[in-house]
Amino acid sequence: MKKQIFLFFLINLIILELVGFFLPLSAGLHLGLMLAVAVCATLIFTFFVWRFSKKLALIQKKVHQINVANDDTHLILPNDDPLHGLTHELNQLQSHIKHQSHRTLRQENELETLVKHLPIGVMVIDRYGQVQVANDVIQELFQHEFDPIPHAYQQDIVQPELLTMVNAAMQRQKSGQRLITFDTPQNRKNIRVQVLYSEIRPKHFQVTVLLTDVSDLVAMSKMQSDFVANASHELKTPITAISGFSETLLEQPTDEKTREKFLTIIKQESDKLVKLIDDILSLSRLRDDQPGDLKLQQIHLADFVSDQLDDHQASAQLKSVKLENNVPADLIVTSDEGRLMGILYNLLANAIKYNDDGGHVTVAATSTFAGWQLSVSDNGIGIPTNQQQRIFERFYRGDNGKTIPGTGLGLAIVAEQAAQLSGSINVTSELGVGTTIKIDFPNDN
C-alpha cells in the first residue's frame, strides 16, 4: 500500500516537472498546478486509506464474530490484495477454532453422559473447594439435591469420615480409600470411598470423590461366611455321631439290643448327612441352571397338589396335622413340573414341621390378571417379624432351629426355584397364629 502511494506521488511530480519544462508557466500558474496535483493526490490517498480501513473493519468484525458468535462464513479477498494473506490465515484459524469447539463440546457431552449414567457416585471439587460436578447417584446416597451452581463441598459432605478424607486431599494432596457406613432413616449402607487428588498443571488441581454402594457385596460376603460356618456345623454333627458310635461298636463288646440301637442311630445320622449333601448339591445345580433349561408344560394344578399332599401324609399323621387342597379343579397352569414339585415339597415339609400337633396346612391357588398365585398356609408357631426376611438364606434357622430338626436349606431351594420361574415370594406370619407363603408366577414364566 505504501509502495503504491509513493509511486503515485513520484509519477505526479515527474509529470509536473515535464509540463513545466515543455510549457513555460508563470510562477503563479505553476504554483496553482502544483496545488491541484497535491489535492488530487490527497483525494486519491484518502480513497486508498478508506478502502484499506474498510477492509480492516471487515477483518476486525470477523475476528469479533469468531470470538463471540458461531459464524461459518469466510472473508474472501482477491489474490493480489495486500490483505489476502491475512484473511486467508484468519479463515484457517476460524475453521480450526470451529473444529476444536465442536470436538470440545462433543467430549463434554460424552463426559456428562458418562458421569450421569455411572452406577457409582461422582463428585469433582476444584482447587478452590467448589463442587463442579455431582451426578445423580451421589445425590441419592447423600439423600439431598445439590445446588446446581458451584459451591463449597462442606455444604454437601457431612459424614465425618468422608469429610476428613476430602480435607486431607485438599490440604495435604493425599489420596485415600476406605469402607465407611452411611446411616439413613431407612437402612444402613456400606460405601466404598475413593478420594483421588490429581494435579492438572502446576498449582492447579482437583479432587475426585467416588462412592460405590457395596452393601449387597458385604451382605453376600457375610452370607458366604455364615454358609461355610453353618455347613461345617451341620456336617460335623452327623459325622461326629457316626464316628463315635462306630468306634464304640468296634472297641467295646455290646449286646445285640445295644448294637441295634447304635446302628439305628448311625443309619439316622447317615440319612441326615445324605439329605444335607443332596440339598447342597440341589442348590448348586439350581445356581448353574440357565433359563433355557426349563421344561415348561401344562399342569392340572389340583391333581398335582393332591399328589404332593399324598407324599406328606405320613409325616402329617405323626403330628395329627390335617392337609387341605383348596386349588380350583379347573385351574391349569404352565410351569416346570420338577421345579414346581421342589417348591411345593419344601413348603409343605416346613408347614408340617413347624406346626403344632393337631394343626392344619392349606394349599390354595388362584388365577390373577398377570399370571397365577400359589399359597401354602399353616396355623403353626409362626415366624418373628425380624426373621421373616432371612428365612430364605442358606442354612438360616430361626429360634426353633435347635429343637426342630432340619438342614436350613429347604426355603433357600424354594427361593432359587421360584426365581427361575420368575416368581415373587411374599411372607406373612404372626407368632402363635401361623404363616402364609405366597408365590406369584407370571403367565410367560
From TrEMBL:
Signal sequence range: none
EC number assigned by the record: 2.7.13.3
Pfam families: HATPase_c (PF02518), HisKA (PF00512)
InterPro entries on file: BphY/WalK/GraS-like, HATPase_C_sf, HATPase_dom, His_kinase_dom, HisK_dim/P_dom, HisK_dim/P_sf, PAS-like_dom_sf, Sig_transdc_His_kin-like_C
Cell compartment(s), UniProt: Membrane
tRNA-binding is among the record's keywords: no
Predominant place of localization: membrane
Reactions this protein catalyses: ATP + protein L-histidine = ADP + protein N-phospho-L-histidine
Domain Histidine kinase: 230-445
Gene Ontology MF: a single term: phosphorelay sensor kinase activity
GO cellular component: plasma membrane
Membrane-traversing stretches: 5-25, 31-52
Keywords: Kinase, Membrane, Phosphoprotein, Transferase, Transmembrane, Transmembrane helix, Two-component regulatory system
GO BP terms, alphabetized: cellular response to phosphate starvation
Name of the featured protein: histidine kinase
Species: Secundilactobacillus malefermentans
